[in-house]
Amino acid sequence: xxxxxxxxxxxxxxxxxxxxxxxxxxxxxxxxxxxxxxxxxxxxxxxxxxxxxxxxxxxxxxxxxxxxxxxxxxxxxxxxxxxxxxxxxxxxxxxxxxxxxxxxxxxxxxxxxxxxxxxxxxxxxxxxxxxxxxxxxxxxxxxxxxxxxxxxxxxxxxxxxxxx
Length: 164
Fold this sequence. Notes:
- This protein is mainly α.
- 74% of the residues lie in helices and 0% in strands.
- It contains 10 helices and no strands.
- Helix 4 runs parallel beside helix 6.
């Protein structure tokens, strides 16, 4: 089962998400691997399939696969939660997106949390909650100043403060 994922992973790395998901006629894609082997192919197949669906603009399918991913690695777990947030955001369900971004940020205290908090802040702004957005941005500034988001966060903070 694990051997079947090799070609699909190669397509995924090459950003050919359609072939990674559906196969190329000779090799199975993640959908067929999941249908045929389920978790015997590893938990990551659900993460891969969900990200492929997200990249192909299919948020409902992405959510379906990503919610089935239950890996133990905290970085991948947070990434899956963030991708679920992205799918909800794509569907314009901003409250659900916000909930998943905050869950992703809470998985593990590392610099990846900064990107999830930035997404949460942007969603809060979209929802008309600038004070909540500002709180997320300040966490980035205080806890993750060396992250990419930390270098850029002052413009987000200033934009909100100028409007007050």
